[in-house]
């Protein structure tokens, strides 16, 4: 898969029910889902959160290819986390496998499986938030939810703007990296042969032009914002005012029901 196929941070326009939800609703639903995910500890509770996420993915109509494409950059981290949980989770009784000073117990296998599922589900639910919410609406939603912090002099607008810009520029930097790699391949660079260390060393020449491009884009963005008289959030108005609709209240109630259901399942050891 090429770098340009990575969908991390992209927005997919659409008219599905998830796209039409208020951005504040989607942020709160993401938080509720993450809470339910971390409260899940057994097979039944994990099955529930997986089923809920599958329904959300189907409703978003984003497509499985986009989800899998976004997972590509974190595969190594997920596998490493699973391996660490596999070998370093203590268990009762005799180990299933004994390798040097490392032991694999049944508890370690379950811990590795649950940890990998948790990370993948966590990433997928956050992907759905960015896939179905435009950067502008995401910024407005974050600023609105964090607005109480303005009473303690927290720069809420600036924080929300920085988070939105960071998400927006992830696809841009990925595209820029792909262009630089293509240009260097045309000049004879080799990024695919050799062992892992050699491949990592081959990527070092990419860093200088990539950093130069990133700083240039940041400078151009700053100049463009100054030319449009941007001076922070004070006195700014919005073209679209955020208002909760009936579907937003229903979605939030369902999110609370999910968390309560997971807690109840935990009480029964499920």
Features:
single chain; 270 residues; mainly alpha; two-stranded antiparallel sheet; 11 helices; 2 strands; 67% helix; 2% strand; flat
Please give the order of strands in the largest beta sheet.
1-2
Strand content: under 5%
Task: Outline the biggest β-sheet.
Answer: 2 strands, antiparallel
Query: What is the count of β-strands?
Result: 2
Indicate the multimeric state. Answer: single chain
Mean pLDDT, to the nearest integer, reads 81
Structural class: mainly alpha
What's the overall geometry? flat
N to C succession of SSEs: HHHHHEEHHHHHH
Helix content: 55-70%
Tally the helices: what do you get? 11
Rg, nearest Å: 22 Å
Uncertain stretches: none
N- to C-terminal separation?
38 Å
Function: Transmembrane (T) component of an energy-coupling factor (ECF) ABC-transporter complex. Unlike classic ABC transporters this ECF transporter provides the energy necessary to transport a number of different substrates.
Main location: membrane
GO cellular component, one term: plasma membrane
Protein name: Energy-coupling factor transporter transmembrane protein EcfT
């Amino acid at each position: 898969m090429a770098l340009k196929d990575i969908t991390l941070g992209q927005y997919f326009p659409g008219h599905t029910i998830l796209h039409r939800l208020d951005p504040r609703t989607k942020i709160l639903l993401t938080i509720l889902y993450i809470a339910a995910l971390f409260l899940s500890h057994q097979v039944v509770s994990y099955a529930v959160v997986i089923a809920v996420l599958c329904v959300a993915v189907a409703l978003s109509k984003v497509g499985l290819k986009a989800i899998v494409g976004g997972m590509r950059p974190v595969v190594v981290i997920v596998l490493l986390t699973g391996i660490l949980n596999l070998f370093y989770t203590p268990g009762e009784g005799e180990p299933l496998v004994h390798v040097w000073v490392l032991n694999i117990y049944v508890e370690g296998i379950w811990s590795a499986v649950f940890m990998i599922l948790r990370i993948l589900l966590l990433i997928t639910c956050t992907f759905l938030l960015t896939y179905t919410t435009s950067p502008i609406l995401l910024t407005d939603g974050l600023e609105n939810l964090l607005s109480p912090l303005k009473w303690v002099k927290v720069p809420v607008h600036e924080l929300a703007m920085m988070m939105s810009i960071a998400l927006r520029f992830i696809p841009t930097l990925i595209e820029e990296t792909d262009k630089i790699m293509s240009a260097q391949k045309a000049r004879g660079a080799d990024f695919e042969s050799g062992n892992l260390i050699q491949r990592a060393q081959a990527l070092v020449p990419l860093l200088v032009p990539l950093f130069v491009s990133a700083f240039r884009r940041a400078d151009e963005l700053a100049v463009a914002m100054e030319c449009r008289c941007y001076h922070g959030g004070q006195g700014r108005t919005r073209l679209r005012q955020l208002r909760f609709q009936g579907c937003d209240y229903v979605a939030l109630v369902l999110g609370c029901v999910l968390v309560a259901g997971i807690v109840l399942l935990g009480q029964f050891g499920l």
